[in-house]
Amino acid sequence: MDKLTYLSNADSGYIDSLYQAYKEDPNSVDVSWQKFFEGFDFGQTYGGETIAEQTPEHTIKEIKVLNMIHGYRDRGHLFTETNPVRERRKYFPGKELETFGLSEADMDTVFNAGVEIGLGPAKLRDIRQFIEETYCRSIGAEFRYIRHPEKIKFLQDRMEADRNMPNFPIESKKRILKKLNEAVIFESFLGTKFLGQKRFSLEGGESLIPALDSVIQKGSSLGIEEFVIGMAHRGRLNVLSNIMGKPYKTIFSEFEGKMYEADPETQFGGDVKYHLGFSSDITSQEGKNIHLSLAPNPSHLETVDGVAEGMVRSKIDMKYAGDSSKIAPILIHGDAAVAAQGIVYETIQMSKLDGYKTGGTIHIVINNQVGFTTNYKEGRSSTYCTDIAKVTLSPVFHVNGDDVEALVYAINLAVEYRQKYKTDVFIDLLGYRRYGHNEADEPKFTQPSLYKLIEKHPNTLAIYVDKLIKQGSVDAEYAKTLEKDFRAILQDRLDAAKTVEEISDERPMFAGAWKGLRPSKSSDIGKPVITKVTKTLFLELAKELNTLPKDKKFFRKITKVYEDRLKMIDTDKYDWAMGELMAYATLLNEDYRVRISGQDVQRGTFSHRHAVVTLEDSDETYTPLSKLKGGDKFNIYNSLLSEYAVLAFEYGYASVNPNSLTIWEAQFGDFANGAQIVFDQYISSGETKWKRSNGLVMLLPHGMEGQGPEHSSCRIERYLELSANDNIIVANCTTPANYFHLLRRQLHRDFRKPLVVATPKSLLRHPKAVSSLADFTQKSFQEIVDDANVTARSVKRVVLCSGKIYYDLLEKQETDKRKDVALVRVEQLFPIAFDQLDALRKKYAKAEFVWVQEENENMGAWPFYCRKLSGSSLNLSVIARPESGSPATGYMKRHLAQQAEIINKAFEI
To answer: Which CATH superfamily includes the segment(s) 57-162?
Structure first.
């Protein structure tokens, strides 16, 4: 009987068709079937009978054995021994022989399907033991959903070749033991010496420390020179001390309540110890230098994900010439947070996008099986907390946290995979939380059954020591000495900490890329900054920027846009887009980097920017700014439809490179609402909490134009509410030139501050919202713009306003020829230019001062200015829309009536 006939008898033509395809092209069938057809030798003899003499039923069982192998690869992770403290949930069908149509009677039968896993013809007993050891022990692997045969084969081959995991040499085991000893004893020491103090202990997940140590060592051997770590508070102190190298003495001083050295100029307020960041340089076992950074993070858990990714991308662009293999992000999650926080999804969706990719992230989930007090069954609908990984087809390794060697093996494989394929990998470290949410919390209130099991469970160090002693790798005395010596070190550092008066900051901020910069001082605010450029340079760049190549065919409307911009040079009237683009062009010419991202920023929400244009007859794009001198440092990316993660990313990017004008633009100003956590926890407070400056620019389109409640207001009041101690800049410019100088000022100061700009919509094309060449080449940024159309002695009322409403007021002033009302524009809302306001008060000594805004009275700048100027000589009153719970009316007729009422009242004296 030939092979084809034999196989076709087995399964109604299905295998026949597979075999026919295999004969024509072996690569046209799955690798497993290739092996099956190649290895099925009818001439060989096993156990006294030849394959040629076997029955069709045996062939069908061969297929069933193959199905069993594939079943373990696909679903073996559901039946692993990965939960250290309780039994796993049951899944059906299971992995019993009957599931695959086999039975105990088949266990000693030889099946050629063994070739699929590299055993050759083998007994079913041996085949099953092989795949059990590979897929159902301390590591459960999920990767078969990856739509890339090479990646599947890489992981499959490695898992099956190392089914018992590599036999680590004695020195490696001793290093693992040393790091695990440090992790466990450090937590125990803190718990004993600082009883009842919050530390968000790692107890139950201490194997994270040898795992992180290993991934750093392994990564270094694979060419990684730098790691950026983002994590929440649980286990942070352990990572800071035992991975990052933050001195134990400093950490103990923080527990003792010692404060960092006071600096009245910086308004440093500090943060709790388990939110702080750190950076350090270490040397690998191979003698290679590795830089480590741990980003500071608030209690908003996963917010740091985007920040850390942005830090990594910034360094890839700035430091590593685009080579992502030299730096890697590590994100450490909690199981409840990674499953439930939307920013995790947003950040993961960025991982393969050109503007945001970082070459793959190592995700480690410290799986405590409980979130605060919530059981995992109440915390997610997915099977695993890591099912988010499937969005980007990233492999997941579920590992028993008590099997520290399995964890080290899995994380080493993860970093290899990351380096090879430049994609994310997830490690689900299954452990437990020995105490409650914090050390003063009683977990039995909500999880009595679980905590009865945890109380009886030995710690990971004891388990590993026992394993090594049984192996003969170390003796009991070695382990005791290791613990004793480390406790002595900790006690010595604690004794030293008790004598400390103030903690000195071991993390110099203004070093590396920040060298030459400094913290700002209160006296800096209001100092003029030279941002003008020469006429020659401005005109040269303007012409070059707006001259499209003749050999490319652009849409007629695009051609006209650029022709109109060239005409602005002749008419000496530059609009908003020209002012903005010229700011970028001049900064690039000065060798600064410019990075812009946000939804549809290349064109601009209102089709004003057109920084990237598409050819008419293809998808080819052309970026004029990239053709200028320094244009290789210009990047503008249309982002995914995310605000939270993207803004966090750009904050991280700007934090690493202060010599980049890093901009995030919201599609509409109120879209920033979805990223409010980043504004609150990082942008407005990062310098106060962590002594970390940042020069990120946020463009938030704003203006009441009768388009309804949404997309009218960027909520200026929110950013002003966050303003204090010169922490951020809030501006609402009215001219292209002032905007030009505002953007350039960001990089021409020797300090950095976040900048929030309420950018215009209708003013983008307003005939009066233009600037002349002289405005760009002879002036600098003006915090307040006085009225040039009036004389002081004739003025009875001074209208203070900001933004678009100025042009409505100007139209009324010019139409009615009113010289008794001065229109003064407040271009920088914060920091407030008090000196300039005082000068105005003196100039218009006999006039009353009124604040006029188009926003509702409980919104806009008025609530802030009412408070800040209360009791001042200005004695301000307000003209605004009535208070409202909604930013704007949805009816155009009502909008126009309200606007007219505001304008008319402004001139009623």
So the answer is: TPP helical domain (1.10.287.1150)
